[in-house]
Amino acid sequence: MTPTSFTAPTLDYLLLVPFLIVLGVACLGVLVEAFVPRAPRFATQVALAVVGLAAAIGTTAWLWVDGKSGLIDPFSSTIVSGTVLVDPPVLAMWAILFGFGLISVIGFAERRLHSGATAFTPMAAAIPGSTAESGAREAGLVHSEVFPLALFSLAGMALLVSANDLLVLFVGLEILSLPLYVMSGLARHRRLVSQEAALKYFLLGAAASAIFLFGVAFLFGFAGSFSYDRVASAVTFTAGSDPLLLAGLGLVGVGMLFKIGAVPFHSWVPDVYQGAPTPVTSFMSVCTKIAAVGGLLRLFYVALGGMRWTWQPLLAGVAILTIVVGAIIAINQADVKRILAYSSIAHAGFILVPVVGAVTVGNMLVDGQAGSVASILFYLVAYGFATIGAFTVVTLVRSQGHEVTDLSAWAGVGRRHPVIGFAMLVFLLSLAGIPLTGGFVGKFAAFAAAWRGGYWWLALVAIAGSLIAVYIYIRVIQVMFFRAPESDSAEVDVALPGGATWIVLALCFVGTLGLGLAPGPVLDLLQSAAAFVIPSAG
Amino acid sequence: MAFPFLTVLGLLPLVLAILVWLSKPTAGRVVGLVGALVTLVYTGGVIAYTKVTSTPVTESLDWLPIIGAKYSMDLDGMGLLMVAMTVFLVPAVLIAEWKTGIGETGRFSSKSFVALVLLVESFSLFSFMSFDLLVFYIFFEATLIPMYFLIGGWSGAKRGKAAAKFLLFGLAGGLIMLFGVIGTAVVSSSQGTVSLNFLDLATTSFQDSVAVKVIFLCFFIAFALKAPMVPGHIWLPDAAEETTPGAAALMVGVLDKLGTFGMIRICIGVFPVQSQWATPVIMILAVISILYGAFAALGSKNLMRLIAYTSISHFGFMVMGIFALTSQSLSGSIFYMVNHALSTGALYLVIGYMIHRRGSARVDDFGGVVNVAPLAAGFTLVAGLASCALPGTSSFVSEFMAIAGTWTRHPVIAGVAVLGTVLAAVYILWTYQRMMTGPVTEATRDRITTDLSWRERWALIPLVAAFLVLGFWPHPALQEAAPTADYYMVTAAAHDPVAVIEEGR
After folding, report:
1. What is the three-class DSSP state of B300?
2. Please, how many CA atoms are within 13 Å of residue A23, restricted to the half-sphere of its CB?
3. Residue of B62, B186, B194 lying closest to A451 (CB–CB)
4. C-beta of residue B345 within 8 angstroms of C-beta of residue B93
5. What is the nearest CA distance from B184 to chain A, expressed in angstroms?
6. How far is CA A97 from CA A18, A292, A502, B261, B329, in A?
7. Are A307 and A233 in contact (CB under 8 A)?
8. B 411-430 → A contacts, CB under 8 A
């Protein structure tokens, strides 16, 4: 195939509005950082980010409503010459991403915990321990570049889930990743650990990107096009046994699984989650995972759907490995952030279980039942609320102005502070999948989807894995409520946060319990948004 | 829509628990006790209302339509007995544990105890009233969390470990059952029943395949872990040993009933074919439980463990009666579930008073108590004899029905099970003898200085009165149990064996 002439893509701006808002606000944020005077700068950034994300959520909802009622072009319209697609699952993922992005950004704005500063370093470029750094700290500088960085990252995530083209997928992946590398290195305290995390994340992430790109090249070589539609029709045509296709599938899969944090591509997760500033960790563990799963879904269900029989067993193996390794290693961790990191690895495995089931509207889903896509989205939402909530509680347990993430220092924290303790209990129970929380309904729907897809044994293994995973959370609960504090850790206390953190905690708490008590409407909504649009290969 | 009587009944303790937490430490207990009594009166009112007006109190709301789960509440005979038993036992527990958590350092507060008991009450009421598999499952699991804190918050030194063991076993059973619930949802919806209502599931004819057998086994294993049957019982003695007597009474009296309750509701009600397939093994396990529990009780040196082991033996009788699948044994087992809560509850409470005074739960640390605390010894004897099914107590009626019903179908099993009743008399009387009779030991004289106070008596009197009245006049309870038993006989397409003697005539 030789390129003949370049045709400028036609952009359907209307359908891209939410994405463009986030991208535009991110760019605006950079200008604010440069031109607005120091005093009002922080407040401006917070306001800009919050308003921008709220507007993005609002426009997403508007597109959804209008699309359903037929006021605007049906979702099937491929925009940007078919490289980007805005269909119901994309809108659902956008809403979820921007929603959790908004919660995270509100969390970034917390200043009371750090006596007026933020959780982020006043001068990221300074060498840790240098005079420039201590000077900046003493001068009480507050930098707010984390807001535009987060929005850039969110824009990349939005692009990633709406990609209908391998190259756009790659571009989305990179826009998502690059700001995150920087954000990981922004921690105010324990700068070296933070910078190490950033460097590690960058190096491994770059390698994963290279592998992904290599796979894209193979797929291009196989199909002669980057477009998902062409790849899909080429897969049908060749019955899926071409070595180029198999190699491409494997390498592209590795790249995506790396971002999801699945075993054996998980080694970066614990170190990066531990080193990054805790608000960034919570953003990363939720939004990145949602975006990567969203990208993986379309890639595997639409572009490589014809290869299902090849990738299902592979992914099933990865899922089992991820659940078991994540859960077992988490049991031995002594640091709360690392425990949550390994728990998030285990959850990556649980999310892959319904992905393997692959019960979609297109194939064997009976009308009126929950398929894989809806189950996965529900699981991600429930996981997101509980994870952000848990990480937010981590930011509250402090000693002498620093977060204390040593599990043994958490002894009795839940008993001394019943409100925070109860909130953490709910988050942990949701992560463990105990009924009356969103995590349970998520697990139920997810495993049911796997079973419907014929993978009942995978559901069985996943349930056995859940039992191991439950122990992770019981251990933390046990320490928080039943262990008497050691005398030397008596200074560990729950710091009273400012309004921003309370908002985050309240949203996560209500979300977690709400999804557990009244999941019906949410699951219905997600199911009605679950049909991937597959444009006919032109 | 009619007034949601049952939802209010379930929510009442839940709301009260929140109120207790919000109130002052001293006022919390009072709020909780008054609330528990109000719940009791309200339950009586609801039951009277349904009986007098014969209006059904069914409730049904779409909850998770995409999976077919509805929020369905109803009260059949068995549910009614379980609900009545729960609301009856809870005030007694609260009165008996009135002083728990007061003046103890390093433990949770006393109002937390009250609130957690009310949470257990609320969640168990919801699961007894639920007619939807998923809703039943949710509350079945949810009871674990407050019970976990009840075990871990007060009493024994190793309570944290015991609580974790309780929770892990509970969650293990719960997750095994989750597999069954998911399987039931998937298989039944593939057969066209997108509903998890027990009545709808009962009419779904599940193809007898390996998958359905596995689903059935998941349910059975989960329930056998809950109503501890050997070999799934190992968590119970530890949990009972480390917890407070009131919490132990609640645990074996109410929570473990969810296991036998589930066996009837789900194993017999939804998977009758598979139940009959597994009956031989289950019967043998039940007999092993009866005998093992009895022998372990004989060998037990710790009173809390001892009562836990007697419960394992009693649960064996219940399971035997359930799976014998005769209308007599089934109603006997349902009735037994109530009686066991009354007698074992009373036993736990009165023994708990003694343990509290003595400061030790070892049988050997007592001796001659009857001389210093005759009332306590008397109550122990009465509760103990009720527990070993002496005629005149309600346990006798139910145990007799369970064994007699089983006899018509499995005479050998029933014959071996009778040994359990003999052993029961031995372990109760022997324990009584060692604890209460004989010369007054020095420790007894020093520690057990007072007999039961009026508060302590008032926790016991209702329970004792209930099992005595039901012992002489079991009609009201059996009247409720019989229709349920008949319903499950019909669902399982089972018939009472015709006595051989009639054939000969």
Report:
1. coil
2. 13
3. B186
4. yes
5. 10
6. 11, 11, 21, 44, 57
7. no
8. none
The Cα angle at residue A450 between residues A445 and A454, in degrees rounded to 5: 140
In this complex, which of A466, A519, A523 lies closest to B175 when CB atoms are compared? A466
Q: What is the ipTM of this complex?
A: 0.90
For the stretch A168-205, pLDDT in tens is: 999 999 999 999 999 998 888 888 889 899 999 999 99
Identity of the residue numbered A233: S
Question: Does B145 sit within 8 Å of A520, measured CB to CB?
Answer: no
Query: For residues B382 and B464, is the Cβ–Cβ distance under 8 A?
Result: yes
Closest CA to A149 of A109, A183, A124, A188: A183
Contacts of B176 in chain A (CB under 8 A): 463
Q: What is the pTM of this model?
A: 0.92
A35: which residues sit within 8 A by CB, 6+ positions away? none
Separation of alpha carbons A70 and B231, rounded Å? 61
CA torsion through residues B488, B490, B495, B496, sign? positive
Whether B481 contacts B322, CB under 8 Å: no
Q: Output DSSP code: residue B61.
A: E
pLDDT digits 0-9 by tens, B203-231: 877 777 888 899 999 999 999 999 888 88
Rounded to whole angstroms, the Cα distance separating B245 from A106 reads 48
The token pair that represents A450 in the structure block: 């796997």
d(CA A247, CA B379): 78
Is the preceding omega at residue B483 within 30 degrees of 0, hence cis?
A: no
Give the C-alpha separation, B95 to B106, whole Å.
Answer: 23
- Helix or strand (DSSP H, E) at A251: helix A243-260
- Name the nearest CA neighbour of A443 among A474, A464, A472: A464
User: Would you say the C-alpha torsion B306, B309, B311, B317 has a positive or negative sign?
Assistant: negative
DSSP B231-294: TTTTHHHHHHHHS-HHHHHHIIIIITHHHHHHIIIIIIHH-HHHHHHHHHHHHHHHHHHHHHHH
CB A282 within 8 A of CB A343: no
pLDDT in tens, B327-363: 999 999 999 999 999 999 999 999 998 888 888 888 8
Rounded distance, CA B389 to CA A160, Å? 70
C-alpha–C-alpha distance, residues B124 and B136, integer Å: 9
The whole-angstrom separation of Cα A295 and Cα A167 is 12
Peptide bond before A128: cis, by omega within 30 degrees of 0?
no
Measured CA to CA in angstroms, residue B30 lies from A249, B42, B66, B103, B115 at distances of 66, 18, 44, 17, 11
Pairing status of strand A402-403 against strand B59-64: unpaired
Those residues of chain A whose CB sits closer than 8 Å to some CB in chain B are 366, 368-370, 374, 415, 418, 429, 432, 434-436, 440-441, 443-445, 447-448, 451-452, 456, 459-460, 463-464, 466-467, 470-471, 474, 478, 481-484, 518-520, 523-524, 527
CA angle, B254 then B257 then B260, to 5°: 175
Cα distances (angstroms) measured from residue A162 to each of A296, A376, B412:
11, 16, 69
Give the 3-state secondary structure of residue A337.
helix
pLDDT tens, residue by residue, A66-117: 877 766 655 555 566 678 888 888 999 999 999 999 999 999 998 888 777 7
Longest Cα–Cα distance of chain B, Å, equals 73
Residues A218 and A244: beta-carbon distance below 8 Å: yes
Cβ neighbours of A474 in B, within 8 Å? 164, 167-168
What is the rounded distance in angstroms from the CA atom of residue B88 to the CA atom of residue B248? Answer: 16
Tell me, rounded to whole angstroms, the distance of Cα A318 from its chain centroid. Answer: 19
